[in-house]
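ok here's the first one, seq then struct tokens
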Amino acid sequence: MVTPPTLNAFSFGCSACGKCCNTPPALSLPELFRHRDLFIGCLAIGRVPRRRTGERLRTGNHTSVLDESDVAAFDSIARTLLHHANGETFSIVAQGYDYPSLARCPALLDDGLCAVHLQGKPVTCEVVPLDPLVPDRFQHLVLAGRSQSAAYLGADCIQEGAHADEPLLVANGRIEDDGATNALSRRRAALELDHAFWGRAVFASLRRGLFDSAAALARIPPGGFLTISIVPALLAVAGASAPCRDWCIDFIDSQLALIDRSIAQAMTRRRLDDRHVTQELRGFANAYQRAKAVLSIPLTRNKESGDSAFATTVEAYLRGASLSS
């Protein structure tokens, strides 16, 4: 019997070198609540290409031509995790925010290890180096691109083909590592919950001022993200119940203190390239203060006695990561 060749195979072996931990991670809103004293939260808005039958995807020496089933796989992800306006597709995710000049995740210790590895590490970090917005059968293209990127230069953690000293991660359009499969599933599930509990509401609130305006959309850099305050997401969940409102106020207080510390540290570094980030952080702080003023007004009796089932669901969602840590 002839063994079929292994196609589009990549191995991955993490040495905990910390090289890929060069920015704060994307987090679900419950994860951000849990790590509210470590990660400054924001919303990251990006364009996601809409795929077409016959389209050729190429990364390095790897090429795939999309058929109808491939496009259906991309569309399935887009329907549940992304947003659509005027023929374009967008992602809106909660994201940690920090000074790019630091070139490190706030959770990264001096020895290169993760400070929250055993205390609720964000699922995004477990997914690395895969991409939850890409169907499993095309993860080899993600790995091909990342193996050549500056962030992974010298790490040698992503190797093409099967290697005896590194676990096989993807091959033949499949995720071969059970841990990676589980992490991808959990991250997609978290993104779906974010989409349901606040993503659609945020998209609707921003539609006229951003998504329906060509001039405003020009603010999204090609291949990058537009970062805005996370306040719209907080307002979307805070109205569910008095406990949700109180948790959001507590989160805001922690974020204001963290922003103050971050700006104070930046002042001691005195880097010119930090100035625009400091301005944005001050904008975040102002948005938090305005939101806190709104949320400090108690809910009316009608709202407090409203849809109790919905309130319970939102509270359970926010408790997805411990709020007491």
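and now the second one, same deal
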Amino acid sequence: MARIVDRDAKRQKILEAASACFAREGYAATSMEAVAGAAGISKGSLYDYFKNKEDLFFGVFEWFQQLVMASAMARMGEYQGARERIMAFADASIGAMLDQLELYPVSLEVWAAAAKPGTRARFSGAMKDLYTSYRAELARLIQEAQAEGAIRDGIDVEATAGMLIGAVDNLALHYWLDRSFDPQAWCRSFLGSLFDGIGTETRKAQ
């Protein structure tokens, strides 16, 4: 009787092994043989799931971002008010990245892939889509906060959302470079000051 293979579970195992290899050795130094060995499968079996190293690395990138987003959304769901959810979204996004800190070098490798001629189109397009989705989610939360009377009308919602995404992304990088740095504390302080500026007078007084 033929053995039934759970392809989703096996793919997950490969991605976990590959992410550790890429984070530890970098994209250029990681071989398909090394990933297959780390995953406990044959090289031929690895190619049943990913056609080449670029395809595998792209799969790791998508998987890592899904981990971060799922963790952030789960934490954000604990809050009711839109303004509090904005704070939670930023805080949880950083927290989720800290939870997966050993995989953060993968993000840096993705930026490098987005700059190289051979992989630029695929990875820069994926990064664009990722930032667009994050920006859209924050813009939606800002608009909800406006509807609740927590943030005043008249601000540039898209620009505010874009700057917040940039701030969150940059704080995570700061922590990777300097572990004495507290990105969540800085983020909370920054958002508190921001909301003092764009919040309604009623909400400021609370």
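notes on #2: The two ends are 69 Å apart (CA to CA). The chain has a mean pLDDT of 87.
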